[in-house]
From TrEMBL:
Domain of life, source organism: Bacteria
Gene Ontology molecular functions: metalloendopeptidase activity
InterPro entries: Cell_wall_metabolism_enzyme (IPR050570), Dup_hybrid_motif (IPR011055), M23ase_b-sheet_dom (IPR016047)
Domain M23ase beta-sheet core: 208-308
Ranges annotated as spanning the membrane: 77-100
Protein name: Murein DD-endopeptidase MepM/ murein hydrolase activator NlpD
Comp. bias intervals (Basic and acidic residues): 25-38
Keyword Lipoprotein: no
Positions with biased composition (Polar residues): 1-11
Chain spans, region Disordered: 1-50
UniProt keyword list: Hydrolase, Membrane, Transmembrane, Transmembrane helix
Gene3D superfamilies in the record: Glucose Permease (Domain IIA) (2.70.70.10)
Amino acid sequence: MRPAASDSSAPTRRDLRARQQTAEAARRAERSRAERTRPARPGATRGTAVAARVPLTQRPRQRGGLGVVHRGLGRQVLSVAVLVAVFALVVSVSVPASVFGTPSANAATTGAPLVGSAADTQSFQVSAAAAADDTSRDAYGATSQAEFAAAAAAIQRAAAAKAAKATTAQYANTWNPGIGPVRWPYEVMPKLGPGFGAPATCSTCMSVHQGQDYLAHEGTPMYSIATGVVTKKQQDSYGWGNHLVITSTVNGQTVSFLYAHTQTGSIAVNVGDTVQVGQFIALTGSTGSVTAPHLHLELQLNGTKVNPHTWLQANVTG
């Protein structure tokens, strides 16, 4: 008995696969049309809306994440290469070639001696006066900070003395216009400072003040109180500084006048000189143990210290 003949209209496996693929393609096409015709979402950016209207077949292909990484890395490498090239160009222009090698190495490389032309050389001329200066260490005596300070102070004192001498020369022939055998030490009397018998004003002074301070300005000229002979002249004394003593005879009594703290180089008389009353003798200064310029005046009457200001008040006439 023969088997029944197969129905020629029954689909084969190949037909089924073809139909399935056709249906899948139709579904994909339908989804594509739906995406192209879908309205833009509220709040979507303009770029998003434009992208929605462009058919998928017309959109540019976007590479995957690996391509983006490669492109960013390439840009960084290119930037670094540009910076290195610029740095190399700056170095080659601003730094001489001899910096990168010793003279012997450069000569061996070029095969020529290191000799430049006369036009390429630089010259510097020094005057004979400048060349004569000795800059060796032995030319200077000061080697410590204290010695340098002392040297600077000495220079300052010398300059002050020079200026004082010039000022002293201006007052050499001037006189206190007072009258009488006893006159005040200043043409115009300044303010009074600590007086005779006052407590000591410094740690190195005596227990009590043994004179009268007249607070005159630096450089104010002072004059001889009475006619007498210069019996002492001393520079740079620690306590009194630059000072002098003039011994006179007033009313039959021996009177010695001490003028202290005078300006350096300003004393216009010397030991043994006879000084007339009212004659210019020195400039007010601040040498010795002082805090400000002034005249410290002491007076000895027959060898005994007395109040100089009180004595002047009693003996100055006119």
